[in-house]
Structure formats: C-alpha cells, structure tokens
Specification:
With 92 residues, the protein is mostly helical. The chain is built from 6 helices and no strands.
C-alpha cells in the first residue's frame, strides 16, 4: 500500500474516531491529545500512524471502525504498515 493512499484511509478512520463519543475520550486520554491537537495534526503522517496504532490495540475498535467506514478490517494493519514507522525490522 502506498503511503499517500494509507494517509487518505487513515484520515477517514480519524474522522470516524472524532465522531465516536465513547472511544474518542479514551484515545485522547491515552495519548494526551486534545481536540485542537487533532485538528492541527490531522494531516501529519506520524499522528495518523499513532492513531492507527491505538486502534489496532483492540479488535472491537477495528471492527467498529471498519463497519462505519467501509474499510475492510484486514486493511487496518496494512494502513499502519504504510505509515511512518510501520515497517517491521527484519531480525534474520
């Protein structure tokens, strides 16, 4: 997946997260992010990567976001991988 496509998908997920009254406060508390920070950093690939990393901590969050956005749940890990810091080190 190309980074620009991953960023566009992550922005869609961020818009969903911003509208989720239950999960948004959890995200903000866990990351120390304010609503102003979210608006300011929405286009920042590093912020989008962190947001995707947060969502990937819980399968329910991924499934809920997938259902709401139409982005297949299996794509969430690929989106994260295409954003900064998403590559896995090769230990061999």
């Amino acid at each position: 997946m190309q980074q620009d496509f991953a960023e566009a998908r992550a922005l869609t997920v961020l818009a969903w997260l911003a509208g989720d009254e239950d999960l948004l406060p959890v995200f903000m508390n866990a990351t120390g992010t304010s609503e102003a920070d979210m608006r300011l950093r929405a286009g920042d690939p590093d912020f989008l990567a962190a947001m995707m990393e947060f969502l990937l901590m819980d399968d329910r969050w991924v499934l809920d976001a997938s259902a709401a956005t139409g982005i297949p749940a299996q794509d969430f890990a690929m989106i994260r991988a295409a954003l900064p810091g998403g590559h896995l080190p090769n230990w061999t």
